[in-house]
Structure formats: C-alpha cells, structure tokens
C-alpha cells in the first residue's frame, strides 16, 4: 500500500468541500437553466438590456466563481484523493466539467454577449436554452452523479472501518435484539 492509497484528513476534507460545491453548483445551474432562461421572453424588450446586465453581474459571484473553484478542487483531488475514490472517476468528472467550460466559452458566452449588446432575441434565447441543456446541464448532471457515487464509496469505507457497538434491531414490542 502506497501513501496515495491511504485517506488523509486533508484528502477527505478536500473531497467534502468539492462534493458540497458540486451540489451547490448543480442547484444554481438548474435554477438558471430551468427557471431563469425560460422566463427571459417575458421581460419587455425595452427592459431586457438592463435586466440582462444586472442579472449577469450577479451570476459571476454566485455561480461562476463557485463552479470554477469546484473544477480547481476536482483537479486537486487527482493528487490528494481519498483512498476509496478511483483516479479514473476524478478524471471523468474533470472531463465532464471541462465540457461545460468549453461550451460556456464557445457557445453560451457569445450568446450572452449578443443579448447584452443587442437586447432581447427569442431565437438566441432558444439557442441558449437548447445548447445549455445538452452541452452544460447533461455533463454537469453526469459529474454530479459521479460525485454522488464517489461519496457512496467514501461512506461504505467509513462504515466498514468504523468501530461501534453491535447492531441492534427493535421487535414490534420495542425489545432490542443483537444482530
């Protein structure tokens, strides 16, 4: 067994922080995708530029930065990973996260910049919603599912290693029995 095969407090804490940010990002992204974007056509044409610019400024600290930190932490996990987590799972998660970043940079940001510069455009919003679903939400959801699976590996290892009293069950009368 090498030193990389042993979980350290640091590796477990890093994984927990990354896990929390993955799920935070999933919630934020789903609100953006399934609540925010579909309601944009309801904003008046005259009000849309100011609305879009104000919203865009708020997305950076509450969604973009946490998701960027998530990707950086996922990369750090490649070097400081808990023992139960296979390296391939982290590479896969990082690849899925990279798909979302590449899509963001090459497809969604140009659409967002056009909406900011030119105002409301229903065809652009439709394209944003379509590409966002397939090129950001699907890979993001797969990465989230992978992190959930990795957490199950961590919990399985923790329950296997945890000392404790023998398990007991209660019968219908409330009497405890050893298992």
What does this structure look like?
By secondary structure, the protein is mostly helical. It has one domain (3-178). It is built from four helices and two strands. The chain has helices at residues 9-39, 48-77, 87-118, 122-161; strands at residues 168-170, 176-178. Strands 1-2 form a two-stranded antiparallel ribbon. Strand 1 and strand 2 form a beta hairpin. Helix 1 packs antiparallel against helix 2 (48-77), helix 1 (9-39) runs antiparallel to helix 4 (122-161) and helix 3 runs antiparallel to helix 4 (122-161). The longest helix is centred in the C-terminal third of the chain and has 40 residues, at 122-161. It is elongated. The protein starts with 8 loop residues before the first helix and ends with a strand. The model has no long low-confidence stretch (mean pLDDT 91).
């Amino acid at each position: 067994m090498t030193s990389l095969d042993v979980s350290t407090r640091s590796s477990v804490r890093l994984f927990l922080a990354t896990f929390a940010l993955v799920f935070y990002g999933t919630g934020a992204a789903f609100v953006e995708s399934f609540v925010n974007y579909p309601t944009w056509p309801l904003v008046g044409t005259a009000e849309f530029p100011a609305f879009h610019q104000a919203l865009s400024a708020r997305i950076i600290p509450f969604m973009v930065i946490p998701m960027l930190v998530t990707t950086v932490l996922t990369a750090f996990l490649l070097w400081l990973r808990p023992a139960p987590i296979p390296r391939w799972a982290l590479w896969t998660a990082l690849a899925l996260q990279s798909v979302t970043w590449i899509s963001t940079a090459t497809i969604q940001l140009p659409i967002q910049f056009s909406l900011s510069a030119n105002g409301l455009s229903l065809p652009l919003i439709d394209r944003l919603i379509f590409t966002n679903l397939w090129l950001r939400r699907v890979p993001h959801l797969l990465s989230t599912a992978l992190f959930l699976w990795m957490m199950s590996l961590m919990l399985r290892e923790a329950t296997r290693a945890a000392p404790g009293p023998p398990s007991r069950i209660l019968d219908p009368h409330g009497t405890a029995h050893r298992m």
